[in-house]
Known about the structure:
The chain is of the alpha+beta class. Helix content is 27%, strand content 43%. Strands 1, 2, 3, 4, 5, 6, 7 and 8 form an 8-stranded antiparallel β-sheet that branches. The radius of gyration is 17 Å and the shape is globular. It starts with a strand and ends with a helix. The mean pLDDT is 79.
Amino acid sequence: MSMFEVSNKDVNKISGKYGGGYANITMNGQLNLLIKKDKLTFSQLFKTYHILNLENITDVQYKSKQEISKDITLTRLLAFGIFALGLKKKKVDNSYFIIISTLEDGFENDFVLEIENTIGLGATMAQGFVKTLRNKVTEYKKV
């Protein structure tokens, strides 16, 4: 099974590490996301864990671990004041994240998938997937 699927220059499928936390998916580990006509499927090998209607997606983001760390550093500064500058900082990591925000049954959720930067393709494919998903969500909501 391939990690990425590209058709007509759109990245329709991506695979990454899911660590849990999204209420509708009760597993963790390697997970595949596949964009279909009006749905996003979450699967592992031959088992589908969740099917999300595109109308329920409120936002799709691509962030590097460095960007997330900057957000955390600002939060630490607000929480610990001047003492935050003396706290130990983590090393730079080249991981990337796809963050899909949803509104399902009145609940706001964030689904986070970590994409490793394998041979320099991870970041490019993650950006392509986010662009494709944003376009599909926009198209679907116009109808």
